[in-house]
Design brief:
Blueprint lengths: L2 H14 L12 E6 L6 E9 L2 E10 L2 H14 L4 H6 L2 H8 L8 H16 L11
Antiparallel strand pairs: 1-2, 2-3
The protein binds FE2/S2 (inorganic) cluster.
Length: 132
C-alpha cells in the first residue's frame, strides 16, 4: 500500500472510529467554534490537573477532515501540559493528518485546533492567524 493510501486510511479510521468523542461533565475548560462556510461545529471539553490535560473529549458534527482532525488532535494532547496546546502550530496538526490539505479544506482541518486553543486560553474564539 502506498504511503498516501495509508494516510487516507488513517483519516477514514479516525472519522469512522473517533477517539475521545463525547462530552465531559463539569469540564475545567470548554470551547466551541464553527466553520462559517458550512456551519459545521466542534466543541471540546477538558479536565485539567496540575496544568496537565487528564481528559479531553470532542463533540459536534462536520466533514470527514474536521472530525478526523479533532480525533487525531485529542490523541496528540491527552496527557500533555496545557502549554503544549498553546505551542502547537497549524503545521503540527497538518503533519499529523498526513495528507495534503488544499486551501479550501484548511478551515476544516484546523477547526479543532482553534477550539482547543480557545479552551486553554479561556477565549471565546481564536483567529486563524493565531495558529501560525
Ligand atoms: Fe464543514 Fe469541513 S466542510 S468543516
Amino acid at each position: 500500500m502506498a504511503d498516501f493510501d495509508i494516510y487516507v486510511e488513517h483519516i477514514l479510521d479516525h472519522y469512522k472510529n473517533p477517539r475521545n468523542r463525547g462530552t465531559l461533565e463539569n469540564p475545567d475548560l470548554t470551547a466551541r467554534d464553527g466553520n462559517p462556510l458550512c456551519g459545521d461545529e466542534i466543541r471540546m471539553d477538558f479536565k485539567v490537573k496540575d496544568g496537565r490535560i487528564v481528559d479531553v473529549k470532542f463533540s459536534g458534527h462536520g466533514c470527514t477532515i474536521s472530525q478526523a482532525s479533532a480525533s487525531i488532535l485529542t490523541e496528540m494532547i491527552k496527557g500533555k501540559p496545557l502549554d503544549y496546546v498553546k505551542q502547537l502550530k497549524k503545521d503540527d496538526l497538518l503533519e499529523a493528518l498526513g495528507i495534503p490539505i488544499g486551501p479550501t479544506r484548511l478551515k476544516c482541518a484546523l477547526l479543532s485546533l482553534k477550539v482547543a486553543k480557545a479552551a486553554v486560553y479561556g477565549l471565546d474564539k481564536v483567529r486563524d492567524e493565531d495558529l501560525e
